[in-house]
Design goal:
323 residues, alpha/beta, Quinone Oxidoreductase, Chain A, domain 1, Rossmann fold, seven-stranded mixed sheet, six-stranded parallel sheet, 16 strands, NADPH2:quinone reductase, NADPH binding, quinone reductase (NADPH) activity, zinc ion binding
């Protein structure tokens, strides 16, 4: 029997159960994939905790890469043996996963399985943030929180490629070095200083055009205070906890700024949009203008340790589970 990581009751990392599951078959419009690697993301922690509720029991994980082993009816464009990657298929922490064909993208030659699994969910997130949520223009100054994390490192690179000046925040000296290596022009150690006044100093009091904030509760107030008039706060995650309800009058007081809470699903809602974003990411990987840092590879059986390390901020870059 194939094995997978299952959540029977929500809670901490200890609820993750590595267990035998029934062998699966693809239905109409689906692919059965032998998983080569599964990506670990904060949204997996939210599902495990019940912050984003799902009916229990459920298989964890949304993202992975692998090789198609069976094709369901009504599927076109994919065949047994094809290498694919995906970012929106629950149950990806598994030796075998059933993936909707509409959520899968072909993996080009020259992109290995680990890179494909590490790129898609966080890469698509970074892409929609800089290309759609606030389309970065040459000469913009933007702020990227957790700039040495999986999304953060990609955001820094993509924003720089569009001509931005990038200010990053990090919590350790080692993470500062990684953010600078990715191209950050300025890096603020928010464990040592209050980042909002430092952003104002670095921008001669003007503020930034956009803040890309995946941290949430601990950074939200400072993010608002870092924006220039009519700037955009893109709150795309909450690794430090959920942001309390916000009085809209605060947006007026901050300078007629914009607050948005975007999601990946809304930005890959059509096949055309998914292919556009994934295609640009794979092309950037191929030409060397984008690199993916894999910060840790864990056996699938050690999903609990991967979650503990991620939530304990002991990691940089992307974490993978390998069956």
């Amino acid at each position: 029997m194939p094995k997978a990581v299952v959540v029977r009751a929500t809670g901490g990392p200890d609820v993750l159960e590595f267990t035998d599951v029934e062998a699966k078959s693809p239905g109409a419009g689906e692919l059965l994939v032998d998983v080569a690697a599964a990506g670990v993301n904060f949204i997996d922690c939210y599902h495990r905790e019940g912050r984003y509720p799902l009916p229990t029991p459920f298989g964890l994980g949304l993202e992975g890469s692998g090789r198609v082993s069976a094709v369901g009816s009504d599927v076109t464009g994919f065949a047994v043996g094809d290498r694919v990657a995906w970012s929106q298929s629950l149950g990806s922490y598994a030796e075998q996963a059933v993936v909707r064909a509409g959520d899968a993208v072909p993996v080009p030659d020259g992109v290995d399985d680990d890179t494909a699994a590490a790129l898609l969910l966080q890469g698509l997130t970074a892409h929609y943030l800089v290309a759609s949520t606030y389309p970065v223009q040459k000469g913009d100054t933007v702020l990227v929180h957790a700039a040495a994390g999986g999304v953060g490192l990609l955001l820094v690179q993509l924003a720089k490629a569009r001509g931005a000046r990038v200010i990053g925040t990090v919590s350790t000296e080692a993470k500062e070095a990684l953010a600078r290596e990715a191209g950050a022009d300025e890096v603020i150690r928010y464990d040592l200083t209050d980042f909002a006044p430092e952003v104002r100093r670095l921008t001669d009091g003007v503020g930034v055009a956009a803040v890309y904030d995946g941290v949430g509760a601990t950074t939200f107030d400072g993010s608002l205070a870092s924006l220039k008039p009519r700037g955009v706060l893109a709150l795309f995650g909450a690794s430090s906890g959920a942001v309390p309800p916000v009085d809209p009058q605060r947006l007026n007081q901050a300078g007629s700024v914009y607050l948005t809470r975007p999601s990946l699903g809304a930005h890959v809602a059509t096949r055309e949009e998914l292919e556009w974003r994934a295609g640009e990411l794979f092309a950037a990987i191929a030409d060397g203008s984008l690199t993916v840092r894999i910060g840790g590879r864990y056996p699938l059986a050690e999903a609990r340790r991967a979650h503990e390390d991620l939530e304990g901020r002991r990691t940089t870059g992307k974490l993978l589970l390998v069956p």
